[in-house]
Design goal:
Chain lengths: 254, 303
């Protein structure tokens, strides 16, 4: 009940924030505006439309994940609303888990809104629905949850500006870290090699959740790979939340 | 069993940059009986808020004990019994008054139906009936303070902890708050509040604890502290010949055709009264001038 209370309050806070609606609006706007782009293109218009729609939903949902997460805990401390919560019989771990689920719900609603618009648009334009795209959105959602956990961790220890810098950096690294796979084996210096291995396995590998090419190119999706990515996300989120709770338990609210 | 018992509380803060240590609490001792109103007094920076934060687990402490009915006050079990109002309370301004109380009730795992009923009752109690659906961003400072008090009572707490509850209130608000605190005491609650507004404190507290530079320097029943501290007695009279008073070594001054004499010695005062009556004088008043809480506070602070 307590986690639910924190989660629902977090959801209320995020959804009563104007920036949330602005981002959803822009997400939908970009999906719709891709129709204009297709008018300028000769060839497979459905493919281009899908590509643009998925990219814009991805971009705006990641923005929502980062910008609603980075200041949630920081704001509670800065505005001293946290005194009112933590003086009640609620553990700090409940507070962090509640915040996470609140953000997860916020992202779910935002993503669903954009996805529904996207499907309606695709249905009107091409007259068919590619259900396979749902898999793309499911994986995107898990990626968003990892980003949220990262922003929650940074929000618990630093200011919103630093949190956004760190979270965006990790998001970008997360999409190129896979290129490090072969490189790390070629390193000769043992110390750098160990560091490379640690970084490779601890930094988030967000490309695991990117199946856009398979969707757009209409290639079959490997279910094993999908389940593996979801397990990876659950493990990674659990680890991040545990770390956040450990740090948050030590915090003093002066 | 004591409602609140704090023994030898110590707390050191470390600065972020130079890692310099500052001992804020050196030896805090507080003992509060069930059903008491306890005034926690100290100048700014003495460690009042830090003590309260230590009690609630918002900050850790180096050593000592903080107990609520014999249990660790920081524990979940301990905090279930507490209602806390921070100084200058801040709440989520995107919520309505009803939503805030509902949220607070959920944090105590109170069933929804019970919270609904309680919400209505509490908003009426603090004079915010009809403001249920108003967003907190539209609330004035006084209204926020009232709402803060309402959310403090949502769990029907045995112990109510208020950090500087009178600051920022106008005289009417202060009077209402005093009345509310007294009515809570009557319903069996234990109230612990910090303040530097001595006038309000003197009117309602049973026990006072004074702290200075992180140490408890005085603690006791207000009635004991004050009754042991009569500074002098003043006798106002008339109708006795001045030369007679002088010849009997009774010092006096004249004011509005009355004679005024002062003495610290209660026996001497009795003798003076007998002397006035024997000489057919008229006693107008006999007033013991006691120390006020402010006098006691200043005396303790200035050593």
């Amino acid at each position: 009940m307590k986690i639910r209370a924190i989660a629902l309050n977090t959801f209320k806070e995020a959804t009563r924030n104007k920036i949330y609606y602005l981002l959803i609006f822009f997400g939908i706007f970009f999906v719709l505006s891709s129709k204009l782009v297709t008018l300028l293109i000769i060839g497979d218009k459905v493919k281009v439309l899908k590509d643009l729609g998925l990219a814009s939903i991805n971009f705006f949902s990641v923005l929502i994940a980062i910008f609603t997460g980075i200041d949630l805990v920081y704001k509670e401390i800065e505005r001293k609303t946290i005194y009112n919560i933590l003086s009640k019989p609620i553990s700090r771990s409940c507070f962090i888990i509640g915040k996470f689920f609140g953000l997860a719900l916020t992202l779910f609603v935002a993503l669903i809104s954009m996805v529904v618009m996207f499907f309606l648009f695709m249905l009107l334009f091409s007259g068919e629905l590619d259900v396979k795209i749902l898999v793309y959105f499911i994986l995107l959602y898990f990626e968003l949850l990892i980003i949220t956990s990262i922003s929650l961790l940074f929000s618990s220890i630093s200011t919103p500006i630093l949190s956004s810098v760190f979270t965006i950096s990790l998001y970008l690294i997360g999409h190129v870290i896979w290129t490090f796979n072969e490189f790390k084996d070629k390193i000769i210096n043992p110390i750098i090699k160990v560091i490379s291995y640690i970084l490779y396995y601890t930094l988030p590998n967000l490309e695991k959740f990117n199946i856009k090419n398979s969707i757009v190119m209409n290639v079959d999706i490997d279910i094993g790979m999908i389940l593996g990515s979801i397990c990876y996300a659950i493990f990674y989120i659990t680890a991040l939340l545990t770390l956040t709770i450990l740090i948050f338990n030590k915090r003093e609210f002066q | 069993m004591k409602a609140i018992e704090i023994k030898g509380l110590e707390k050191t803060f470390t600065s972020n940059f130079l890692l310099k240590k500052y001992k804020i609490l050196k030896d805090i001792n507080i003992s509060i009986e069930k059903g008491e109103i306890y005034g926690f007094l100290g100048p700014n920076g003495a460690g009042k808020t830090t003590t309260i934060k230590c009690m609630l687990g918002l900050i850790s402490f180096d050593s000592g004990e903080s107990l609520i009915y014999g249990k660790d006050s920081k524990s979940i079990e301990g905090r279930k019994k507490i209602g806390f109002l921070p100084e200058h309370p801040y709440f989520y301004d995107y919520l309505t008054a009803k939503e805030l109380l509902f949220f607070s009730g959920m944090l105590f795992s109170i069933p929804q139906k019970k919270v609904m009923n309680k919400t209505k009752y509490l908003l009426e109690l603090v004079g915010l009936a009809g403001k249920e659906d108003l967003k907190l961003k539209k609330f004035s400072k006084g209204m926020i303070q009232r709402l803060g008090f309402a959310q403090t009572l949502i769990n029907d707490p045995e112990i109510i902890i208020l950090d500087e509850p009178f600051s920022g209130l106008d005289p009417i608000g202060r009077k209402e708050l005093r009345d509310l605190i007294i009515s809570l005491k009557k319903s069996g609650k234990t109230i612990f509040f910090s303040s530097h507004i001595l006038q309000d404190m003197e009117m309602i507290v049973d026990t006072v604890g004074i702290i200075l530079e992180g140490k408890t320097i005085k603690q006791g029943k207000l009635s004991d502290l004050i009754s042991h501290s009569v500074q002098y007695y003043e006798v106002v009279f008339k109708g006795v010949d001045e030369s007679l008073l002088k010849s009997n070594n009774i010092g006096f001054e004249l004011k509005d055709n009355n004679c005024i004499t002062k003495s610290k010695d209660f026996e001497k005062v009795n003798h003076i009264i007998e002397f006035i009556i024997m000489n057919h004088g008229k006693i107008i008043s006999v007033t013991p001038f006691k120390m006020t809480l402010e006098d006691i506070f200043l005396k303790e602070i200035n050593g």
